[in-house]
Automatic annotation (TrEMBL):
Protein name: 3-oxoacyl-ACP reductase
Database matches in SMART domains: PKS_KR
Domain of life where this protein originates: Bacteria
UniProt keyword terms in alphabetical order: Oxidoreductase
InterPro entries (UniProt xref): KR_dom, NAD(P)-bd_dom_sf, Sc_DH/Rdtase_CS, SDR, SDR_fam
Heme is among the record's keywords: no
Every Ketoreductase domain range: 210-386
Length: 449
């Protein structure tokens, strides 16, 4: 859906009004296009004394085709600022971060990226180090709110023990336009057992040879996910309810994929889905539990049948389907299970008790399952979208719609591709150290954690 306010704010008269009245001024966000370099510009790298990733960061970025330097030039603009904070062992050491970023922030280009890399606080070598590392979260979230006005983002990566060589896919995502609507987020590597990543023959097709099942795939977010994972080389299996079979078949024909027309709440749905995957592909590598509905009512007006339906589609059915795939050993080693949560599941939302409960349940599903399947090299994560410009937005009252768009550091709604790019990042073979995470794709919304 078109954001008319954003369009108005970009013309000369609109800019004058917005500036003089102090109104929200949503920047134009750069998004990645196929064939473009990951980063159109140079990344500046800094490090606190005692940090361990310096040389590896340079090598990692170089291998990804990203130009990186370690010395700032006053006259140059930088597309990314990366700071290795792993060596900060007490709060006094946090000053090294300030000393790097204060002059560098003046050199950050529009649609720039700020990334801080720390150590998981629970794995820090001392109490003082754990406290200092936890402080990085406040720094990154505050910095994100400072730089959002020019389309820039700030994110934190906690690298657990043994994950130093597993940063590539995450840095590629966070430094590139693929993460245009991801800001103020904390990504934790190494929360569960580490597994070796599958080798990638063609970096432009990291999912080549992988099979991806996407539920709710016929339209909206699901269709964007299907197209994006297909772009990255995956064979797509799309699933949606029988009523949307024509839309689903059309999309799968476009992508060379296969369709499953099935109600995931049906008693035999897990077995039907498992058989279809086994017959067509012998198994599955990526499962995206995207299907979901809303039946919004205040709690005092809620009907039990609507409550049950919302919960079952978002949480119950994904549990049953995943369990069946695991029981039949159809989810291959190194597989990915990805749930779709929501800001409503983190912060709650007036009139959405069923939806908020369901989407918080998705987070619980990730917390529990990620630990149980780690030994099999399977990762489990969730994306929590904020305000995304889908067809559902058209049904919102104007005031709520505008508030949803403006109440973020980027002052606008995201696009379905923003969610899809985050799914592709989780699905990447190089993301094998990422499990048990919930990352918001919300432009750093001003509500939620």
């Amino acid at each position: 859906m078109t954001d008319r306010y954003q369009s108005l704010a970009q013309n000369p008269i609109g800019k004058f009004i917005v500036t003089n009245l102090g109104l929200p001024n949503p920047p134009v966000l750069e998004r990645w296009t196929e064939g473009a370099p990951l980063v159109k510009g140079t990344v500046l790298i800094g490090a606190a004394p005692g940090s361990t990733l310096g040389k590896k960061l340079n090598a990692t970025l170089k291998s990804s085709g990203i130009e990186a330097v370690g010395v700032r030039a006053d006259s140059k603009k930088y597309k990314g600022l990366v700071f290795d904070a792993t060596g900060i062992s007490d709060t006094a050491g946090l000053a090294a971060m300030q000393q790097f970023f204060t002059p560098a922030m003046r050199s950050l280009a529009s649609n720039g990226r700020l990334v801080v890399i720390g150590t998981l606080p629970e794995q820090a070598e001392s109490e003082t180090a754990a406290i200092a590392q936890r402080a990085l979260e406040g720094f990154v979230r505050s910095a994100g709110k400072e730089i959002g006005g020019n389309g820039s983002t700030a994110n934190l990566v906690y690298a657990g023990q043994g994950t130093e060589d597993a940063l590539t896919s995450t840095l590629e995502f966070l430094l590139s336009p693929k993460s245009a609507f991801v800001s103020g987020q904390v990504i934790r590597l190494g929360l569960t057992e580490l597994v070796d990543a599958d080798p990638v023959a063609d970096p432009s097709k990291p999912l080549a040879g992988k099979v991806a099942l996407i539920t709710g795939a016929s339209r909206g977010l699901g269709a964007a996910m299907a197209r994006t994972l297909h772009r990255d080389g995956a064979d797509i299996v799309g699933l949606d309810v029988p009523a949307l079979k024509d839309d689903l078949d059309a999309l799968m024909s476009e992508l060379g994929g296969t369709s499953i027309a099935e109600d995931i709440t049906a008693e035999d749905a897990p077995q039907v889905i498992a058989k279809a995957l086994k017959d067509a592909h012998g198994g599955v590598d990526i499962v995206v539990h995207n299907a979901g509905i809303t039946r919004d009512k205040r709690l005092k007006n809620m009907k039990t049948e609507n409550w049950n339906l919302v919960i079952d589609i978002s949480v119950g059915a994904p549990q049953r389907i995943t369990a069946e795939l695991l029981d039949q050993k159809l989810l291959r080693k190194g597989g990915r299970v990805i749930g779709i949560s929501s800001i409503a599941g983190i912060a709650g939302n007036n009139g959405q008790t069923s939806y908020g409960t369901a989407k918080a349940g998705v987070i619980g599903f990730v917390d529990d399952l990620s630990k149980r399947v780690a030994k099999d090299g399977i990762t489990v994560n969730a994306i929590a979208p904020g305000f995304i410009e889908t067809d559902m937005v058209k049904t919102m009252p104007l005031g709520i719609r505008e508030a949803g768009r403006r109440l973020s550091s980027l002052s606008q709604g995201g696009q379905p591709i923003d969610v899809a790019e985050a799914i592709a990042w989780y699905a990447n073979p190089g993301s094998s150290a990422i499990s048990g995470n919930v990352v918001r794709v919300c432009g750093q919304a001003l509500i939620g954690a």
